[in-house]
Design a protein that fits this description.
Helix 7 packs antiparallel against helix 12 (327-355). The chain contains 13 helices and no strands. The protein has one domain (20-411): MFS general substrate transporter like domains (Growth Hormone, Chain: A), CATH 1.20.1250.20. The longest helix is centred in the middle third of the chain and has 52 residues, at 152-203. It starts with 19 loop residues before the first helix and ends in a 13-residue tail after the last helix. By secondary structure, the chain is mainly alpha-helical.
């Protein structure tokens, strides 16, 4: 990837009266609000339809279009953002999420099962498009608002803060989903969330329209990345998020409720606390590295180390369950270790995708990268429901171990970072 052109100075050109820090704040705030509704909606759908007697595979199918359309959205969204600006993709994502939430209001227990599944799949498809438009916009915008003169450490810090805080708030969203379902019911919950997200949308109207626009409009041939680093990192991301979701999305909440007898609010609260802790570790990644005496930015070697370490954790949890360890202790303790290591791994991923690209083509490369991320989530979601039916949580954990190992093998092929970045 080339060095950014001198004409691409997003912190000063065409951005009105908003400074780079103010733009970052507006984008982050919108991302936070969206994330709360996304996490809450995930728990609402899982709990509501499990309560109605749907199997884990049925629930997994409810998210099929959510993940599938995320794949297409990231490719097309990156191209749209490069041509028309990231403000448009950010707004589009928030409007579509409001629509998806309002679509779920009339869903009732009296509906035929086939109709309910088909209708919710369509609503989840719109939500998936919305989520990936929003995420691609927010992640890409960081590269455009961080001045080149600020250095790679500031880029690493800003990426870590955005990504870590987003995941912490997604955890709050999990807890919020369980709480809203208990207190307001399914329909009332989605109306409240749609209203809140509408308020957040109003706050983004101050953003300038030029964020992320390429001076030369990209053609459709630009949808696929021609960067070796982006391609191998995307493959590693595909396997990494497949490994997480193969046991976390459907299998874990169903296991906690059905096998351990936890209440819905307890499952939502626990998974929320896990994601909050995961987000805090992710946001603290630069500070943690400094505390270990690493003052430089991470490179491929750091990602290879953390991915290799992550490979062992789901295997250890599965062995503990096989040896009849107390399931609550094995799962809760193992999940804490998995979350901490996964957070460091994901934080380095989020930095490297920006380190391998430049500000001019950032939305195209980030869109391609998160297309792989969405494909991994789709794979993990489908496997989570199917494998849990066949072999329970242990089988899902062994599948996660295999997928992380494949991610590690992909990391071994990463090329050195561009010379403007100092690797670990």
């Amino acid at each position: 990837m080339g060095t950014p052109t001198k004409g691409h100075q997003p912190q000063t050109q065409g951005h009105g009266h908003l400074s780079a820090l103010q733009q970052y704040g507006v984008i982050t705030g919108a991302y936070w609000a969206f994330t709360l509704t996304d996490g809450a909606l995930r728990m609402l759908v899982v709990f509501h339809f499990h309560q109605l007697g749907y199997s884990s595979l049925d629930i997994a199918f409810l998210f099929l279009f959510y993940e599938f359309f995320g794949i297409l959205t990231n490719l097309a969204g990156g191209w749209i953002g490069a041509r028309f600006g990231l403000r448009l993709t950010l707004w589009s994502g928030m409007v579509l999420q409001i629509l998806a939430l309002l679509m779920l209001v009339p869903v009732a227990a009296s509906w035929p099962k086939l109709l309910s599944v088909a209708y919710v799949m369509v609503a989840q498809a719109i939500s998936g498009i919305a989520k990936d438009l929003n995420k691609m916009s927010a992640k890409s915008a960081i590269k455009t608002v961080v001045p080149e003169s600020a250095g790679d450490q500031q880029l690493f810090r800003w990426v870590a803060i955005l990504t870590g805080s987003k995941n912490a708030l997604k955890g709050v969203g999990f807890f919020l989903g369980g709480l809203l379902l208990t207190s307001l019911g399914f329909a009332g919950s989605v109306v409240v969330m749609a209203a809140g997200l509408g308020m957040a949308l109003l706050g983004t109207l101050v953003l300038p329209g030029e964020i992320g626009k390429m001076k030369q409009k990209p053609g459709f041939g630009s949808l696929l990345s021609n960067s070796e680093g982006i391609n191998w990192l995307s493959l590693a991301r595909f396997f990494l998020f497949g490994a997480r979701d193969v046991w976390f999305v459907v299998a874990l909440p169903v296991f906690l409720e059905a096998a351990l007898g936890w209440q819905f609010w307890e499952v939502g609260g626990f998974m929320g606390l896990w994601v909050i802790g995961y987000g805090l570790v992710q946001g603290s990644a630069p500070a943690l590295r400094r505390s270990w005496g690493r003052s430089d930015t991470p490179g491929p070697a750091a990602l290879q180390f953390w991915t290799a370490l992550l490979t062992a954790i789901p295997a250890l949890i599965a062995i503990a369950l096989w040896r009849d360890a107390h399931p609550a202790i094995a799962v809760v303790g193992g999940l804490a270790g998995f979350g901490a290591v996964f957070a460091m791994t994901s934080s380095i991923h989020s930095y490297l995708v920006l380190a391998y690209t430049d500000a001019e083509s950032v939305s195209l490369n980030v869109g391609f990268y998160y297309m792989a991320n969405a494909a991994g989530r789709l794979l993990g979601t489908l496997l989570s429901g199917w494998i849990y039916l066949l072999g329970g949580l242990q089988a899902c954990l062994w599948c996660a171990c295999l997928l992380v190992a494949l991610s590690w093998l992909s990391c071994l092929r990463l090329p050195p970072l561009p010379t403007r970045v100092q690797p670990a």
